[in-house]
Amino acid sequence: MEYTREDSGAQRIATLDIETTGFDAASEETVAVGVGLHERGAAGYEAALDCFYRETADDEAEMIRGAADRLAEYEADLLVTYNGADFDLPFLRDRLAELGAGRTEFSFAADHLDLLTDRKALPGKWPKLEECVEAYGSTPARTVWNGTDVDGGVFGEELAPAYLDALAAEDDDRTAALRPVIEHYLESDLENNWLVYYGDVGVAFDPGYAGTVREFSTSP
Question: Signal peptide position in this chain (predicted)?
Answer without folding.
Answer: none
